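Board notes (copied after class):
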Amino acid sequence: MSKLVRVCFFVIGLLLTMQHSFAEEGVRGRLVDTSWLARNLKSSDLVLLDASPETYGKGHIPGAQSVNIYDLFAYGFGGISDSKIEEDFRSWGVGPEKKIVMYDSGGQELATRLFFDLDYHGVPEQNLFILDGGLSKWKKEALPLSTERVPSPKNGTFKLTKLNEDLRGGLPEVLDATGDTTHNALLEGLGPDWHYGQIAPFSKAGHIPTGILTPVGDFYNADKTFKSPKEIRQMLTFLGVKEEQQIYTYCGGGVAATVPYFAAKYVAGYPKVKLYPESELGWLNDERGLPYWTYDEPYLMRETNWLQFWSSQMIRSFLGAPVSVVDLRPQAEFNQGHIPYSLNISSEVFRANVTTPEKLAEILGPAGVHASDEAVVVSGAGLTKDSALAYVMLENLGQKKVSMFMDSMDTWTKRGQHLVKDPTVVGPKKAPHDPAIVPISYPSNAGTDVLINSPRAGQDPYPVVFVASGKELAAKSQNGKTVHVNYADLLNADGTPKAAKDIWTALEKAGVPRYAQLICVSDDPGEAAVNYFILKLMGFRDVKVLVS
């Protein structure tokens, strides 16, 4: 081969490479930007779909067809046939040889839902794109608009041959996922008003158990483009979502859920993501009456109907009980009557060891508290400063699980349960079915860094925010942003937390951010501990208590 021929091949190859790079400029995965669309607007290989039928007549991108996407929403509920889907797609000009770009007003969920429907029904994924920023960004850049309805194109050649069932999750697997948060994560695309029960469009208020609040707006920038893969991964990591988990996304009826679905799967690149199209509507219509939560972690609160099972002598004798009931009341009050098998460790013991957890551990083990149990803290008055502080200190020591008993002793007896006066036997078992609680050595080095004595840096890129938790601000001011939430404003008179919707309203009004390390502070660490408990109850991920 001559030198001239080699040079010619090199130049041709370079030109082809440059042509390819130019063709890909403005494409990010399954997203295209406005400059790419403006350059390719008149391409015969392009099908442009406007997924916002309400605004189409007021102005749309030239050449875009109006898609009545609401007709597609009924598919998951059996309201539209496969043949109708095929007919609709063909009428838009869809075929395997076409590049399909779809958009909505920007920062919404209609384009992502249309993307899912096309993908699910077998349109080649490599041909599907969403206009990043939607019509909003197109307008902001002063690109051309039209108010004329585009004539129907020549029918496309799309044929529905196989559904991509791997893209969607059904009720049985979602139900299983709610009980296994180690291997699964449920992302909810609705807002806090729905999640915490301020609004209740269906028969109940709240959300699917273990659902993580990830509103549509969290995935978009101010200009309505999607956040970067790094930002979305940082956000989901902060919320406890792991790459190895199976992710399910849901909302009220399978539309808003397509935003976290698209962002996690196609922008951030998580490998295992499915949409639950029926979402809460399907969940609540199940004849079994599936549970529905308003708090994010309601199991942190225990009531008589739950605790009475583990206080049964028969259960304790024959099955054992992985529950340590820690009664904080003064000994004299405890001796007047307590829940069977309770362990009396007064609140003064906890307060005396706030800064010496190793000394507290030396007391807990011989008293019968097992670190591998669920420790149920009993105050006799629900959530108090003392019970919240004990809760935080047990969690800080690494107790496997800690919860709060919300009922009073009067409520316990009114519900048909008895109180005992004899102290709980803590010592070696004298017979195979002896219900005595065996003392153990409580570990003192398994701390979870819940109680801190100095502020630490927040999880990048999220800030540290101090939550002043008393009636007044703490005497010692903090070096950083501080919001004020009086713990007493979050409690009912009987010591139970206020409704989730009311707590959310108070937190939002105070300016408590969801993406931040929240450090609860007060001159009384018990007040800070109450807010810690309530923030955990509401699903806030990074919360600590500052002690002097």
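Comment from the instructor: The chain has 19 helices and 20 strands. The radius of gyration is 29 Å.
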